[in-house]
Write a structure and sequence with these properties.
With 347 residues, this protein is α/β, with parallel strands linked by helices. The chain has five helices and 23 strands. Strands 1, 2, 3, 4, 5, 6, 7, 8, 9 and 11 form a ten-stranded parallel beta sheet that branches. Strands 13-14-16-18-20-22 form a six-stranded parallel beta sheet. Strand 2 (60-67), helix 2 (75-82) and strand 3 form a beta-alpha-beta unit. The longest helix is centred in the N-terminal third of the chain and has 31 residues, at 2-32. The model is unreliable at 11-21 (pLDDT under 50). Bound molecules: 2-acetamido-2-deoxy-beta-D-glucopyranose (NAG) (5 copies). One 2-acetamido-2-deoxy-beta-D-glucopyranose binds at residues 36, 38. One 2-acetamido-2-deoxy-beta-D-glucopyranose (NAG) binds at residues 36, 38. Keywords: Signal. Residues 1-20 form the signal peptide.
């Protein structure tokens, strides 16, 4: 009897310290990431009852922020809470709300998630955009924007860098949902390809500027929008050197290229039309190297044939490194690509 009681007391003391310890560990992890302990929000969610504890004046705001159907605050009230926050460390869930925009978080320039927590922006039936107009960097293993049936755009014009390893999902939004070239390029920067990548939507109309071009490559153009086909008589070879991003299909058809060194600045080839390949290289009889000098990422949403090499120099077929180098740059990673005359790497 006494033994049991003593055991229970021990258990109680043990649990008490274990949980306190855990709280301290989490706190220390936040501090290690650069959080001031006065800037950590510790409540389960954000509601009118908990906002008195909200660290309103922090440049770097920390915590696992949850805004959901129990959040009884107006968009204006939320805006006031987040007015000073530029960096969020922790995680962010916006689930099952009636807000029409996420622009109450427009001040954020960076979101840096802890562990496997992420950004989950799901089932907000009235939300038309994220509205994160200052966001530049997202480092989150899970980034899920889905099931917001009225969402027509992200509206993240400054977005430039995503890093993540697990889920990158931007899907099941309004039927006319579109992403800008810069936004999708921002998601292509991840150095590790996330295990799951699901992005559905169209490309928005592109904004004409000195750095953008379409059909003809203008001098100094870095971002080409549309399908770029290069045949044996392509006139603007020198101009290819300035290209950094192709948002469309790159098709090399019967060129006399020996290698691909002309694409000296090409970082990204991005095709979000599911019916089109991102890269096609066909009938280039002298081409014996597929090394793009600066390539960082080929992004494709096509289930099959996202990258095709066909009828090029015989040497290409017998060089497995060629295949693997290209494959490592493709997002999403898939067993079937690239396709070298009907074979993929290792076959
Ligand atoms: C944390 O914030 C408080 C209040 O803003 C400030 O007084 C303190 O110096 C900060 N501590 C650190 C380590 O930055
Ligand atoms: C919020 O959602 C939960 C779970 O989905 C539900 O049980 C609850 O009734 C909802 N509350 C309100 C105020 O809508
Ligand atoms: C959102 O709107 C619906 C329909 O008007 C309502 O039933 C629901 O309770 C609202 N949810 C919140 C969190 O206000
Ligand atoms: C965003 O990332 C860039 C490059 O990694 C870095 O230089 C910059 O400081 C980051 N900005 C913020 C606000 O975290
Ligand atoms: C590729 O070039 C060949 C020879 O010029 C041409 O016949 C063929 O139609 C081109 N392929 C495509 C898909 O445009």
């Amino acid at each position: 009897m006494y033994k049991n009681l003593i055991f229970l007391i021990f258990l109680f003391i043990f649990c008490y310290f274990a949980s306190a310890q855990n709280g301290i560990v989490v706190e220390q992890e936040f501090v290690k990431k650069g959080c001031n302990s006065t800037c950590i929000y510790r409540e389960e969610r954000i509601t009118s009852k908990t906002i008195s504890n909200f660290p309103k004046n922090c440049f770097t705001l920390c915590g696992y922020l949850v805004i959901n159907n129990l959040t009884d605050l107006s968009e204006k009230q939320l805006l006031a809470l987040f007015e000073n926050a530029k960096v969020l460390i922790g995680g962010l869930t916006i689930f099952d709300t009636n807000y029409t925009t996420g622009s109450f978080l427009a001040g954020l320039e960076a979101i840096d998630c802890m562990y496997d927590s992420g950004v989950e922006w799901v089932s907000n039936m009235k939300m038309t955009e994220l509205g994160l107009t200052n966001l530049k960097n997202v480092t989150c293993n899970d980034f899920t924007i889905s099931d917001n049936s009225k969402m027509t755009k992200l509206n993240m014009p400054k977005f430039e860098n995503y890093q993540g390893t697990k889920n990158l999902v931007i899907s099941r939004l309004a039927s006319n949902f579109c992403m800008s070239g810069d936004e999708i390029k921002g998601f292509s920067t991840t150095t590790t390809v996330p295990a799951t990548v699901e992005i559905t939507g169209k490309l928005c109309d592109f904004v004409k500027s000195d750095k953008t071009c379409t059909k003809d490559i203008s001098d100094g153009c870095t971002d080409f929008y549309g399908d770029l086909t290069i045949g044996p008589n392509f006139a603007d070879l020198e101009k290819l050197k300035s290209l950094e991003t192709i948002i469309g299909t790159l098709f090399l058809n019967g060129t006399t290229f020996v290698d691909l060194s002309i694409f000296e600045n090409l970082h990204y080839v991005i095709q979000i039309d599911q019916k089109k390949s991102a890269l096609k290289v066909e009938g280039n009889k002298m081409l014996s190297s597929t090394l793009f000098p600066s390539l960082k990422r080929i992004f494709s949403t096509a289930a099959l044939e996202s990258v095709i090499f066909k009828n090029n120099n015989e040497n290409l077929k017998s060089d497995p490194m060629t295949c693997y180098t290209i494959r490592n740059s493709i997002m999403p990673s898939s067993l079937w690509v690239p396709d070298f005359d009907g074979n993929s790497c290792g076959e």
